[in-house]
Amino acid sequence: MTISRREWLWLAGACGATHLWARQGVSTPPEPLFAEVPASASGIEWVHDNAMSANHYLPETLGPGCAFLDFDNDGWMDIFLVNSGPSDFWKPPKPVRNALYKNNRDGTFTDVTEKAGVAGASFGMGVAVGDYENDGWPDIFVTAYGKCTLYKNNQDGTFTDVTEKAGVATPGWTTSAVWFDYDNDGLLDLFVCSFVDYSGEHKFECGDNRIGKKYYCIPRVFRPTASFLYHNNGDGTFTEVSKGTDIAKALGKGLGVVATDINNDGRMDMFVANDTVQNFLFVNRGPGPNRRWKWEEIALQAGVGFSESGQARSGMGVDASDLDNDGWQDMLVANVDHEMFSVYENNKDETFRDVAQANEVAQATRLLSGWGLKYFDYDNDGAVDLILANGHPDDMINEYSMQVKYKEPLLLFHQGDDHRLHNVSDQAGPAFKRFFPARGLAVGDYDNDGALDVLIGNNGGAPLLLSNHAGKGNNWLGLRLEGVHCNRDGVGAKICWTAGGKKRYRLKNNGGSYLSSHDPREVLGIGSALKIDELEIQWPGPGKQIDKLTNLPINRYVHVMEGKGILR
Amino acid sequence: MDMWRAIFLIVSLGILTLDAIAQTPQELVQDAISKQQAGDLEGAVREYRQFLKMHPEAAGVRSNLGAALAGLGQFAEAITEYKVALKQAPATPGLRLNLALAYYKTGRISDAAAKLVKVHEDSPENNQAILLLGDCYLRMGQNKDVIRLLRPEHQKNPDDMAIVYLLGTALIRDHQVDEGQALVDRILRNGESAEARFMLGSAKMEASDFAGAREELAKAIALNPNLPGVHVLYAQTLQITAGPEEAQKEFKAELAIDSYNYMANLQMGAMLRQDQKFDEAKQYLTRALETRPGDFAVRYQLAAIALSEGKVDEARSELESIVKESPQFTEAHVSLSLAYFRLKRPADGNREKSIVEKLTAEAQAKQPGVKAQ
Description:
The structure holds two protein chains of two kinds. By secondary structure, chain A is mainly beta. Helices cover 8% and strands 35% of the residues of chain A. In chain A, β17 and β18 form a beta hairpin. Among the domains of chain B are: 1-92, Tetratricopeptide repeat domain (Serine Threonine Protein Phosphatase 5, Tetratricopeptide repeat), CATH 1.25.40; 294-364, Tetratricopeptide repeat domain (Serine Threonine Protein Phosphatase 5, Tetratricopeptide repeat, Alpha Horseshoe). In chain B, α2 runs antiparallel to α3 (41-54) and α8 (127-139) runs antiparallel to α9 (143-156). The longest helix of chain B has 20 residues, at 346-365. Chain A binds chain B through residues 196-197, 199-200, 202, 204, 208, 210, 217, 220-224, 251, 277-278, 300-301, 303, 305-306, 308-312, 338, 340, 351, 357, 362, 366-367, 399-404, and chain B through 207-211, 214, 238-244, 270, 273-276, 300, 304, 307-308, 330-335, 337-338, 341-342, 346, 349, 353, 356, 360-361, 364, 367-370, 372-373.
């Protein structure tokens, strides 16, 4: 039997170690699984301005998103944070801007926003990072209420706003977005979630005249909208291609999106979480007649569109991963309080079943509203775990609810030997005993120790950076994939590795969480195994190259190029 | 007298049809009546049955047997006897009311109401029937019927607090809050009471002041934990403002008072279904269905359980029936569509899916934020 570091820490904390410390005269408590890195230590002084007003305009309560990205290609994860900004209902009394923090490689960060030219000038919401030009430099797409922005990476620490030129000036209110190559032509395309129709000079307001207070409208009251799919033309421009497809027909209130492959056909599909209307599962059916791409929306029949009571819920955060390691992508969607979150297990026939109860997720989330979230192997034991960032959208909820609060706790789940998720938040560290108005969440290894750290965007507050101390006892291998024929980010790559007699699967999804973008590298946990026996990477189209790698190092990152293996 | 005690004493005691005894002056029956009046109900039942073996046509005696059985809590058997007696002698005074009372006690509120309507038609001045019928309507959610029935009665008897209470509650639930509030004030003028707090709680629920409603209802429970319906409404505020555990505790408290409370059984069933405790959920839902036979909400919950349990064809059959009777029931169309897809009937699944989309679009178009644009 192998014991992961997390299990050891737990056992030590629960029984023997206390006695050991007492005998040795040491009173230091066990290291938390995740430790909060204060601004004084990280240098991240930026604070989100939610523009909260007495009128309670709905965009105020939805941000912010956040991202881990290596914008300067130095091998260290930098941080991008999205802020509000001028809009048709708010004129900031003082300048409000996004933030780009450069990683100083010593646990601290330096604000390089102004120099980089990514401060923004609209009411920002989320961020999606991807190398759409295949030049090896990550570009940044910022969604917004108002003008969204595509920042092209100039490869010199600066960016240029190419939104109009690229043809991705998306109207309305955009939220989450994802880069992925839906047609396997080797170029990243872009899907942008559209939320409600909040247009109009006079914003509809929801309020209780009896107590004279306005509150944030439930999105149900607003008109739904269709999301946008942009095809990458390969020349720095895009063409909106959803017209005539199910994507354009499906009127939703999109907040979260993940690109994944639910049926293992080698084409990336999309799962979109909608607020107060049904979720959408857009299955990629490939090219149809007249070369028009065919998308089939199958959420209802797949069992992921509505609750088991047949009701549309308030879907917000969303993710996908092979939770049970059977080679098929499972999914997750976070909802508002009293709706419970859903953990969808793939039935391998384009249908899913909700196993949130069996995974302790339903019970733990009954009174919570979930936004940012991520399936990830936080302790590198090889099994997928889960983190959830929560917070109620109504800042006045405390006035009428005994148990549901505006600020809510984070939740951490660990996958046990029984292949079920178990709530380990109590053991996760002091940050998990605090309460946050959390929204976006990104995971990334900012200190390159192989343990994925967590960044959380808080509405109207400072971001939360959590340093992962749970994964250090287990071995791992980090992959920086570089596509040659396929998209350079390797989105859609299928990774299979064997270590310690266990075979594991990973699909390089993209998107997931809420308004946020993650470290593009893949960290493969191998527990206490001392080597990886075999690693197979099946690159996405057009080449569909399969690379089999052996004699692999551990506990370090390697750069793997399609068809060429590890670059030394 | 406490207004609710007035209503429930009627229910508890039933009505002895002693007039009928004079037509069958036999020693056995006289002894049975004596026993019944002395509280020896089992002895009375035994002797009535003995007599009825010889004279099964004696409707009055059968009615007395029903009353004795009801007194023993054997309502199902009482109902059987009352029904036979009513068939034999439809004009027997009090018999139909007794049958209604037995239905009421077993939670068959719609059956009770049907009988009480007839009693009320035959005897418009029968106050017991009026009050009980009003309460049945209230329990069935037929607030407009309560108002129609009790508004004239309230004009005739403005000081009858039972009528004030039922009528006020119905008005509030029917969103006629101002008129309802005036009746609440009537009760409040009589001093602090559970009923007044209950009505205030109802009014605050109507106004979406859930925290305020929770406060009023907690006070009502403190004043009278046996006030019918108070735990249900309190549980509903807790569903919104607290958690399911707290709500379930209150629903169970209501069921301890009235095991056939429709809403408590429905909500318990729905919550347990959400927790995937299907067997337990079905027990509550079955009881809710006994109270309101054919109720869509209950049948839908049972169909959803069948779908979750993989009994797809059983679910399909029930859902088809539900959407036929209630074509605007979006959730039922969602589940029916899913059932068809699982049964590999994509054409039917897509047809239902289209209905879902149409109903959703219609509902969306009515939203205030859409209309404002």
